[in-house]
Amino acid sequence: MNEKLQNGLSRRERQIMDILYRDGKATAAEVREGLPESPSYSAVRALLRILEEKNYVRHEEDGPRYVYVPKVPREAAKKSALKHVLNTFFGGSAEQAVAALLDDSASRMSDEELQRLQRMIDRARKQGGKRS
Question: Domain count of the chain?
Answer without folding.
Answer: 2
